[in-house]
Amino acid sequence: MHTSKEHNNYFISKLEDRKDRGLLRFLVVAENKIDFSSNDYLGFSRCPELKQLPEELRHFGATGSRLITGNSSLAEETENIIARFHGFESSLIFNSGYAANLGLFSCIAGKDDSFIADEYIHASVIDGMRLSHAARYRFAHNDVNDLEKKIQQAKGRKIVAVESVYSMEGDEAPLTEIAEVCKSHNALLIVDEAHATGIKGMKGEGLVNMQGLNNDVFACVYTFGKALGLHGAAVAGNLILRDYLINFARSFIYSTALPPVVFLQVQKAYKLLPTALRSELNALVNYFRVACGKLEKLKFIESYSPIQGIIIGDNYKAKALSDHLFEKGYFAKAILSPTVPTGTERLRICIHTFNSREEIDGLLAETNSFLS
Ligand SMILES: Cc1ncc(COP(=O)(O)O)c(C=O)c1O
User: I need a labelling partner for 335 at 20 to 30 A (CA). Which of 102, 241, 248, 318 fits?
Assistant: First the structure.
């Protein structure tokens, strides 16, 4: 590899800077730890039914982009299943939620248009908006009045971006009010349902469908990498949107499609969703909330989803707590600023159907004693 001292120094100083601020990222192998970190809320990634797949399909790649050799009746059938499940006319599958948001947001607005996004919107949406060259406005988290104010300031076509369940807070967007404001200002509404897919609604169809808002949103993003325990994501909306994305979404056009086996797994996961253990999961979330409530020293975020957060308020302390828990056998990640606002650095705890009440008790006891 060719490099030079000057180039090396550039990379090293960037890394040193992150290290000095206590923000250095590194990979962790947490195979034998109790999982309070993954987004596998329903335990689908451990589900034997998703592993029973035709041997002949297991090892094959897609051989090209969907626009070249990567398309198949299996892919299109999967997209129809997903569209029907969530109550939309059509859907288009991307290789990941990141690729879906990047492709969608980068191509649906031009330089004369405006995005108005919740301040806590996921990085994949931010990156997509940046690539579009449209103007960007942020509104205060879940604040519908601020959203309306920003829509009024914005120019051109207006597109509003929210998550239905926020990935770092676990709280829900007030979707009905947001949809009303968007409608009254002729703004398109896009909802990232990454953390509601499989979790919210009677069958796991997400918050938009559960709240009867399909006709009020322009598009929803459903990811397969969270509660489905798989990989990939779908953008759902009307047929025009699908055709538009096939023509303009660069992360769809210029990337090898998912392998056939993933489409089969996604179909299987969608079959399993209606009977997934959502009420057991909700019971565990309640158990966690009640147990947390008894620990006076702990300040936890108001959330009714499997994503829970204990506010620590300091990057180093949050990391030290996460490291301590790791040593004790629990894997719960510290979320640092600037990923979350300064002062709200936290321990992010994901509750899964496979976690036991004893594990929750153990995790909280360790956390409480560390913070005492
Ligand atoms: C809200 C949200 N949207 C999109 C993504 C990206 O999804 P994926 O992991 O499938 O790329 C994530 C994952 O972190 C997320 O939390």
Answer: 102
pLDDT at 59 (0 to 100): 67
pTM over 0.85: yes
pLDDT of residue 9: 87
Mutation choice for ligand 1 from 226, 230, 255, 348, CB with most ligand atoms inside 8 A: 226
Between CA 276 and CA 202 the distance in angstroms is 10
280 is catalytic: no
Segments making up each domain of the chain, as ranges = 21-42+277-371, 57-274
Structure tokens at 311: 């506010």
Crossing angle of the two packed helices 239-248 and 97-107, in degrees rounded to 10: 90
Q: Rounded to the nearest whole angstrom, what is the distance from the C-alpha of residue 4 to the centroid of ligand 1?
A: 36
Architecture of domain 21-42+277-371: Alpha-Beta Complex (3.90)
Is the CB of residue 41 less than 8 Å from the CB of residue 226? yes
CATH 2.60.40.10 for domain 57-274, yes or no, is no
- Please write the tens of the pLDDT for every residue from 112-121: 999 999 999 9
Query: Position of tokens 């992150």?
Result: 18
Active-site pick, 195, 319, 333, 352 = 195
pLDDT at residue 1 in the model: 65
In the chain, which stretches have pLDDT less than 70? Answer: 1-2, 56-59
Catalytic residue among 35, 192, 205, 359: 192
What is the pLDDT, as a whole number, of residue 237? 97
Which pLDDT does position 5 carry in this prediction? 82
Contact yes or no for 347/321 (Cβ under 8 A): yes
Are 120 and 163 spatial neighbours (Cβ–Cβ below 8 Å)?
Answer: yes
- CB count within 10 Å of CB 253 equals 16
Does the N-terminal peptide bond of residue 338 adopt cis geometry, omega within 30 degrees of 0?
yes
CA of 365 to the centre of ligand 1 (A): 30
**Alpha carbons 220 and 143: distance in angstroms, whole number:** 20
Distance CA 118, CA 288 (A): 27
Ligand 1 geometric centre to CA of 273 (Å): 19
- 96 touches ligand 1 (CB under 6 Å): yes
